Each structure stands twice: as C-alpha cells, then as structure tokens.
Amino acid sequence: MMSSAAIPVTSRKTYTWLYFLFPSLAVMLVFFIYPILLTFFYSFTNLALTGESAKQLKFVGFDNYVRMFADPTVRVSIWNTLIFLIGSAVIGQQVLGFLIAILMKRKNKTFRRVIGTIVLAGWVTPEIVCALCLYSFFGDEGTLNSILGAIGIPTVTWLYTVPMLTVILANIWHGTAFSMLVFQAALDDVPKEIEEAALVDGASRWRILTSIILPYIKGTITTNAMLVTLQTLGVFGLIYAMTGGGPGTATTTLPIFMYNQAFINYQLGYGTAISLLLLLLGIVLSLFYIRSLKE
C-alpha cells in the first residue's frame, strides 16, 4: 500500500485543486446541470398539472417536438422573439447606449453624473415596475395620449395598434444604461494621443470615429451585443405585464408562449420542450457572437 509520502508532489497539488473546485462543481451540478437534464427528460413526457396526464407520467417520445414544430403559434413566437431581440437589444440598447456614451465622452464630471443618473434610473428600476410605468405612459388615457390631446393631435391606442413597438421601447428604456456603462469604460480606454494625432493630420470627427474608435472597441461592441442579446432573450415580466403577449399573439415571444403552455394550459411536458427551443436559440446566438469575437 502506497503511503501519502510516496505520492508525487505534482499529484498532491492536483488533488488540492480538486478539493477547492469541488464546491463550485457541486453547485453547478445541482443548480445548473441537473435542472437542464431534468428539463430535457420531461420534454419527452406527458407531464401535466391537471387531467389524466397528471395521474401517471408517460414517455411520449418526440410527440411534444412534433406538436411544437407543427404549431403555427411557435413560428409566430420565434418571429416575435427575433423582432424583439433585434429591435430592443441589437439595435436599440446598443446604438442608444453608444450614442449616449460618445456624447458624454470627455465631458465634465458634473454633466456625466447628472446624465448617467437619469439613464441609470431605468436600469435600476425593477422590471415589473418599469412595465407598469410604461403601461401608464402608453395607455389609452396615459401620459403620451394626454400630451398629444393637449396639442391637438389625435390619440392612439398604442398597446393595441403598435404593441410590439411599445414593448421594444420599454425594454430599450429599461436596459440602455448597461450598454452605456460598458461603452463609457471602453471609450475611456481609447488613447487620447491617437485621436489628437488624427486631428492634427486633418481627420474629421466622423473619420476618427469610424477609423479609430470603432475598430479599437470592436471587441467590446461584440461582447456587449452578446450580453444584451442573451439578457433580452429571457425577458418575460416586462412583456407579460404590459400586453400579456397580446393582442392575440402580436407580442407573444417564446418565454410568453412557454409560460402559457406550461402554467396556463398546464402542459408542462410541452412547455419544457418549448424551453429547450429557447435554450437552443440562445446557444446558437452565443456561438455566433463567440465566433465574431475570434475573428
């Protein structure tokens, strides 16, 4: 029998690292890997909260997936999810966050503090409170229609006429501060000497932006795009509180549709299959951004 003294030093160091890693691995296994595996298993069953299916769990194979891809509402939900992602995350939060950051670049501390506080107010507001505020703003008798009526412009039923636009604007207001902070940090790292040298050489502000600043922070732009995309992909409370996924299916994204099937229609097996579709979409988008970072 080999004593502990006979174990090579390298092996003892390896075991020591494993001891320190074990708590983290255990937490990841219990709270991340196990739920995913359980969800994957339930997606092949008839799991339900009520009815005959709730009495006895049965393995139904790919029935939930066949039903999912044959359901026209799933296609509508995927399309709505992509519109919501592109409008509020990829374009909205990214562009607006960058514009605010570039306008605040090298401004005095008081100016940056005041503007930053105003923008951060939307980010630190809880999602449900943000939804209620924007619902009051876009409602039939809300703030926006009150302003329009006061200046003689016909009012609009925003939440029924352009519901997707209202939830996109709500999510932009709620999440832009994160992009602003990320871009502020990146812009502050751009060497001033390079910009000053370009100005001396006669370069315009636009040329400096497109030829120096944007290439210098392109990694930050891609990373921020990935973070806000994945965060927006799981937005549920904001949309559900403002429109409930309606009118009809106008704002029904994948998280909304998954919730309706799992907890409104009580079809948990079908709901978990939809959740895996949402997970797959997140993985595909993550791989796209990671590949962009490498390039």
UniProtKB/TrEMBL annotation:
Subcellular localization, as worded in the UniProt entry: Cell membrane
Residue ranges of the TM segments: 20-44, 78-102, 114-138, 158-183, 263-290
Domain ABC transmembrane type-1: 79-289
Annotated protein name in UniProt: Carbohydrate ABC transporter permease
Any Pfam family the entry gives: BPD_transp_1
InterPro entries documented for this protein: MalF_N, MetI-like, MetI-like_sf
Membrane topology: Multi-pass membrane protein
Annotated organism of origin: Paenibacillus aestuarii
SUPFAM superfamilies reported for this sequence: MalF N-terminal region-like, MetI-like
UniProt keyword list: Cell membrane, Membrane, Transmembrane, Transmembrane helix, Transport
Family the UniProt entry places it in: Belongs to the binding-protein-dependent transport system permease family.
